Each structure stands twice: as C-alpha cells, then as structure tokens.
C-alpha cells in the first residue's frame, strides 16, 4: 500500500536526522528540522527535544500546529525549535522543509566580521548572491519575536546564514533541503581550507558564478538522488528508522 504524504515525510525527515548525525554535522542533542504536512504549512513535523539525531525513528517526530499557543510549553518541545520553526511555518507557507544546524565550517564562516561565501569553486558558486545574512545575533532564539525576525529575513531566499550562530535552509522537499545544507557545509569547508593556506584566492568572475548557480538550480533531481542514496544507506544500517 502506498504511504501517505505524512508517513513518507516522517521517514524522509527521520533519515535526514540519521544522515546528518552520521556525517557529524549535528550539535550535541540540539538543532532541529521540520517539515510541513498541511497545505498552509501550519501543521508540521519536528524532532522531540534533546533526543540524539542518530536514534530518531519516523514515529518519534512530533506533529505540531503553528497556531497552537500551548505547544511552546510542552516538555518535549524545545523552546528555540518552537520559536524558529513555528514562526517560519506560520509566516512562509512555501517553506515546506526547514533545517537548522550549526555545522562547523558553515558556522566558522558565520563568525567572520563579513560572513560572505566567495565563489571559488562549483560548490561555493551554488550560493552566489543566494544567501541572506543575519548580523544581529542576540542570544538563544527562544521567543516568537526572534523567530518572526528570522523568518522575515528569509523571505526571498532559501538560506539564512545566521551570524555568530549557524544556518537555516528551507526547501520544497526534504531531499533538496538535505542536499542544500550538505553542499553548503562542503562549500564552506573548501573556502575555509583555501583561506587557511594564506595564499590569495582566485575568486570566480560574477558571470561565471551566476551561471554556475543557475546550473545548480536546474538539477534538483541530482539533490533528490543524493538524498535517496543516503536514505537507503541509513535504512540499510538500521531498518527501525522507518518504524
Ligand atoms: Zn541554533
């Protein structure tokens, strides 16, 4: 029998938690991913508070409603997760999948006085002029006002580089969101490694960077395939992921 949209999304999101933990891109038992289930985006799946990504199963994900003011007080809902994801799903119905991480290289770039991802290769060029930057870090994002401010910064972009903090990526599908946050971390790893040589960088011309970014946007099926392959590996390693 075919899986319902919610059932499939639960499996895809659970697989994403496993993949991110497998790749060491998670932060302790913090960080959070969500995926909208309803057409208006307000009903969404979220990981429960402080459970390690590497043991989350499809059925462990919480189904929440962005309009439910009581959800913030549930013991299994992390306050910062509720503030960020609740507000993004409330305000941006097209942001179907929302991933928030503090991966090392992306966060290192976010800690620079000028957190700009220079186009120096194919990976970095994917993000050319396509990242919003928040330069107003003010402590843990645990209020709806802070979540609303972050959602507002995303508006016309799919990635928000959060200064002194980390990253939020939004996408139409779990697969595209995963591939995007993974490629961004890789791009930042390449950039930081290039900087670490102390040699001058050869930055791509704007036209080349723009063309490369557009080329990436034409191959969302590549992102999906990357995700499907990784999901397959995770289910093979632990079939209980889909439970
Ligand atoms: Zn964070």
From TrEMBL:
Belongs to the aldolase class II family. It holds the Pfam family Aldolase_II. The lineage of its organism: Bacteria, Pseudomonadati, Pseudomonadota, Gammaproteobacteria, Pseudomonadales. GO terms for biological process: monosaccharide metabolic process. GO terms for cellular component: cytoskeleton. Residues 11-192 form the Class II aldolase/adducin N-terminal domain. NCBIfam families: PRK07490.1 (NF005689). GO terms for molecular function: actin filament binding. InterPro entries: Aldolase-II_Adducin_sf, Aldolase_II/adducin_N, Aldolase_II/adducin_N_sf. This is Class II aldolase/adducin N-terminal domain-containing protein.
């Amino acid at each position: 029998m075919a899986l319902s949209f919610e059932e499939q999304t639960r499996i895809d999101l659970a697989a994403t938690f496993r993949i991110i933990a497998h790749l060491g891109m998670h932060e302790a038992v913090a960080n959070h991913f969500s995926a909208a289930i309803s057409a208006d985006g307000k009903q969404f799946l979220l990981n429960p508070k402080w459970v390690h990504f590497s043991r989350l199963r499809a059925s462990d994900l919480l189904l929440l409603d962005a309009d439910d003011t009581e959800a913030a007080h549930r013991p299994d809902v992390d306050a910062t997760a509720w503030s960020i994801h609740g507000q993004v799903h409330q305000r941006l119905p097209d942001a179907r999948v929302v991933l928030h991480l503090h991966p090392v290289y992306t966060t290192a770039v976010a800690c620079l006085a000028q957190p700009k991802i220079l186009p120096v290769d194919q990976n970095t060029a994917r993000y050319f002029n396509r990242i919003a930057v928040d330069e107003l870090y003010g402590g843990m994002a645990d209020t709806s006002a802070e979540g609303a401010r972050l959602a507002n910064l995303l508006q016309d972009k799919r990635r928000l580089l959060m200064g002194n903090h980390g990253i939020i990526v939004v996408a139409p599908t779990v697969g595209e969101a995963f591939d995007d946050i993974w490629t961004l971390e890789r791009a930042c790893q390449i950039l930081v490694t290039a900087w670490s040589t102390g040699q001058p960088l050869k930055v791509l011309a704007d036209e080349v960077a723009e063309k490369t970014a557009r080329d990436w946007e034409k191959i969302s099926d590549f992102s999906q395939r990357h995700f499907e392959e990784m999901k397959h590996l995770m289910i093979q390693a632990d079939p209980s992921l889909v439970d």
